[in-house]
Amino acid sequence: MLTAGDLRMDLIRHKVTRAGIDIDLLPREFALLECLLRRKGRVQTRTMLLEAVWDLTFDPQTNVVESHISRLRAKLDKPFATELIQTVHGAGYRIDG
Asked: Which one of 11, 19, 21, 85 counts the least CB within 10 Å of its CB?
């Protein structure tokens, strides 16, 4: 079980909840969230996320990370009062909590 604030990720059941509400994630969204939660409190660069989630060892000048982060925010942050996913400008992304 990985947690951040009221967010819970059950790796065995492949289930994510926030404030007790089930959140449906696509496989890449789940993998991206898992990557952020496993490194909670630490900034993850775009390159680090590309390597961990998409198994890319180079930067193909794509916005795939940004678009997936945007989708995660729509599902995890927008319906709730507190935002969990933080952008660290010029560095990457981080989840605290």
From this structure: 21
The pLDDT tens digits of the residues spanning 38-70 come to: 999 999 999 899 999 988 776 667 789 999 999
CA dist 65 to 19, 30, 74, 88, 90, Å? 26, 13, 14, 14, 14
* pTM for this entry: 0.92
> How far is Cα 32 from Cα 11, in angstroms, rounded to an integer?
13
Q: Where are the domains of the chain?
A: 2-95
Average pLDDT score over the chain: 93
Q: How far apart are CA 72 and CA 33, in angstroms?
A: 8
- Which CATH code of 1.10.260.40, 3.90.550.10, 1.10.10.10, 2.30.29.30 fits the domain covering 2-95? 1.10.10.10
* 21: phi then psi, degrees, rounded to nearest 5: -100, 130
| 91 and 43 Cβ atoms separated by less than 8 Å | yes
